[in-house]
UniProtKB/TrEMBL annotation:
Domain of life: Eukaryota
Biological classification of the source: Eukaryota, Fungi, Fungi incertae sedis, Zoopagomycota, Kickxellomycotina
Protein name (database record): Coatomer subunit beta
Length: 326
C-alpha cells in the first residue's frame, strides 16, 4: 500500500508515503508531466504530483474490483486506460474523476492493458483471465480482434513501440509474438520460469524484458541490421520503420576523401511503405526499389516513391533486365 521513490544513481530512498487502502497493482509515470498514476485493490486510481511533494491531485473512481494495470496513451498523453478484474477496460482523461467510456467483452478479469504506438491506429490491447487478448479500437469503442491460443490466464500484453508486433504472456510462462497487422501468431517460446507478471521495453531498441515468478529475462527481438540498398550511381535508400529515406552519397563526397572515412550527408524523406520493410533491393538500372516483408513485396519508383507493382512472396530477385523479376 506504500509508494517508495528512489534515486537510482545513489540508490537512496527519496520519498515514502501511504498511497492506498489496499495492495498497489499498477504504476504508470507520465512522459512529460510530474505525475505518477497508481492503481490498487481498493478499486481506485490516484494521480500524484511530485513537484507538489507527492500530493494526490486526482482520484479516479469507476472500477468495482482490483485495478491491475494502467497505460498512458502515447498519442494523447492526456488520456490513459486501466484494466480491472471487474472484466472491463476503462479509458480516462487526466482532468476527470470519472471514465470517458468502458470497453466490455472479456468474460473474466482483465490483467493488463497497453496502447498501440504505431502510425495513426487508435488501438489498445488487453489480456485477461479468459485466456485471450483483445485488440480494441478506442475511437469506435469496438473489439477489432481476439487473440486466442493461450492455455491459461493472459497476464501481460504489449504493443512493441518499434516493431509491428504484439507480445502476450501467460501464467504458464509462455510468450507469444503476433503480427500486429494480420494478428497471426509469429512465434511462441517459454523459459520455464513459472508465471509471467510483466513486460518492459525501452523506446530506443528492440529489447524486451520479461518478469517471471522466478526471475527476469531480457531478450533481443529481430535484427539491428539496417534495411538498406544502393544503386550504381551512389543513391542510398533505407528504411526507418515504415519511413523510407534517401541520400546521394556521391554528391556528399569530397574529391580527396579516404576509403572508410565517415562522411556527413543530409537525408531526404522519400515517403512511407505500406508493409514493414525486411529487405530493400534496387533494380539494376536504379529506377525501381523492391521492398520485401510480411510475405509480400511492393515495387516503388526510386525517385518519386510511387507504387508500381505488388504481390505476395517470401523473397525477391531482379533480372538483369530491370523490367523482369522473380
Amino acid at each position: 500500500m506504500q509508494v517508495r521513490v528512489f534515486n537510482y544513481n545513489t540508490r537512496e530512498k527519496v520519498k515514502e508515503f501511504s498511497a492506498h487502502q489496499d495492495y498497489i497493482r499498477a504504476i504508470a509515470i507520465h512522459p512529460t508531466l510530474p505525475y505518477v498514476l497508481t492503481g490498487s485493490d481498493d478499486t481506485s486510481i490516484k494521480m500524484w504530483n511530485w513537484d507538489k511533494n507527492w500530493k494526490c491531485i486526482q482520484t479516479f473512481t469507476g472500477h468495482n474490483y482490483f485495478v491491475m494495470s494502467i497505460s498512458i496513451n502515447p498519442k494523447d498523453t492526456n488520456t490513459f486506460a486501466s484494466a480491472s478484474l471487474d472484466k472491463t477496460v476503462k479509458v480516462w482523461n487526466l482532468g476527470s474523476s470519472e471514465p470517458n467510456f468502458t470497453l466490455r467483452g472479456h468474460e473474466n478479469g482483465v490483467n493488463a492493458v497497453d496502447y498501440c504506438h504505431e502510425g495513426d491506429k487508435p488501438y489498445l490491447i488487453s489480456g485477461a483471465d479468459d485466456k485471450t487478448a483483445k485488440v480494441w479500437d478506442y475511437q469506435n469503442q469496438t473489439c477489432v480482434q481476439t487473440l486466442s491460443g493461450h492455455t491459461q490466464n493472459v497476464s501481460a500484453v504489449v504493443y512493441h513501440p518499434h516493431l509491428p508486433i504484439i507480445i502476450t504472456g501467460c501464467e504458464d510462462g509462455e510468450v507469444r509474438v503476433w503480427r500486429s497487422d494480420t494478428y497471426t501468431k509469429f512465434t511462441a517460446f517459454s523459459y520455464g520460469m513459472d508465471r509471467i507478471w510483466t513486460f518492459g521495453y525501452t523506446g530506443t531498441d528492440n529489447t524486451l524484458a520479461i518478469g517471471y515468478d522466478e526471475g527476469l529475462v531480457v531478450i533481443s527481438l529481430g535484427s539491428d541490421e539496417p534495411v538498406i540498398s544502393m544503386d550504381g550511381n551512389g543513391r542510398i535508400t533505407w528504411a526507418r520503420k515504415n519511413s523510407i529515406q534517401s541520400l546521394n552519397v556521391k554528391m556528399s563526397m569530397d574529391a580527396d576523401i579516404q576509403d572508410g572515412e565517415r562522411i556527413s550527408a543530409t537525408a531526404k524523406e522519400l515517403g512511407t511503405c505500406e508493409i514493414y520493410p525486411e529487405a530493400l533491393r534496387h533494380s539494376p538500372n536504379g529506377r525501381f526499389v523492391a521492398v520485401s516483408g510480411h510475405s509480400e513485396y511492393i515495387i516503388y519508383t526510386a525517385l518519386a516513391w510511387r507504387n508500381k507493382a505488388f504481390g505476395s512472396g517470401l523473397d525477391f530477385a531482379w533480372a538483369l533486365d530491370s523490367n523482369e523479376y522473380a
